Amino acid sequence: MLTLRHYNQDQIAHSHEHAQLVFGLRGQLEFEIAGRGSRIGQQCLAVVPASTHHACGSARGSHCLVLDIAHPDWIRERLGPHSASSLRLLERPDSLRLTAAQQRLVEWLAASPLNDPLIAEQGTVLLLATLASGCAPLGKRPPLSLAALTTYIDRHLAHPLQVADLARVAGLSVARLHARFLDETGQTPMNYVRQRRLQQGEALLRGTRLSVGEIAAQVGYASQSAFTAALVRAHGCTPRELRDKTAG
Q1: What letter does residue 28 receive in the DSSP assignment?
Q2: Residues 6 or more apart from 188 whose CB is under 8 A from it?
Q3: Residue 119, Cβ neighbours under 10 Å: how many?
Q4: pTM of this prediction?
Q5: What number of other Cβ atoms are within 10 A of residue 239's Cβ?
Q6: CA-based diameter of the chain, in Å?
Q7: DSSP code for 112
Q8: Distance from chain centroid for Cα 21
Q9: Domains defined along the chain, listed by start
Q10: What helix, strand, coil percent values describe the chain, rounded to 5?
């Protein structure tokens, strides 16, 4: 039912009697279903209904998790209340975007021993039940949850933060998060982290009597001098001068 497949530049064009779901893992897969073209990459899903002609190929190679549905009765027997939405999903050709949680499940299954029949069957049930909550059309990408990322950053300002940490929170690859962040906010993820460090440091300067060194440590600067230099670059004043202005 669940298999890992690698696609290359060799074009595949056929149809089969069973429905199929193709989940992108790595690379880009050019997909055409019933004359509709799409590109399946990470966090994307192609829906191929039974007996629907489709073609696909990947110039640079693509890895996908493929789910072949043997028969609709199998879904009815095993998914219970989720079966109706799963069967509707398989009725028409489509290209969809998964949520971050759905993609994490796909990647977990891809790393599992799918040659074990029990794992493959239970994984299929879990995956279809998760998809029952819905997916967005591929052309309509939900915006980044900047609030969730900001909350995570603020909670971990005292620690070294990497783009990989934020990518895990967003459920994206490092490269995809970087591109999405730049596209949606106009700045890189690390520039945003530096901005939050400085903003939180300024708030502590204005609202507490903590020493400048303590504040620098709390918001993740390597030293008091590094915090002071960042403040001078941004506002042209030292921590003491900022406090004096606030007090005045």
Answers
A1: -
A2: 178, 181, 182
A3: 14
A4: 0.59
A5: 21
A6: 78
A7: S
A8: 19
A9: 2-137 (2.60.120.10), 143-248 (1.10.10.60)
A10: 50, 20, 30
For tokens 């967005």, name the residue: 136
Crossing angle (nearest 10°) for helices 146-155 and 189-207: 60
pLDDT at 248: 62
Backbone φ and ψ of 22, nearest 5°: -120, 115
The whole-angstrom separation of Cα 37 and Cα 187 is: 32
For residue 90, count CB atoms less than 10 angstroms from its CB and return exposed for 0-12, middle for 13-18, buried for 19 or more: buried
Tokens of 197: 């460090």
List per-block mean pLDDT (blocks of 10 residues) for the chain, which spans 248 residues: 90 91 93 86 92 90 92 88 89 87 91 92 92 72 81 94 90 82 86 94 92 95 94 92 80
The letter for the amino acid at 82 is H
Torsion region of 188: left, alpha or beta (phi above 0 gives left; psi -120 to 50 gives alpha): beta
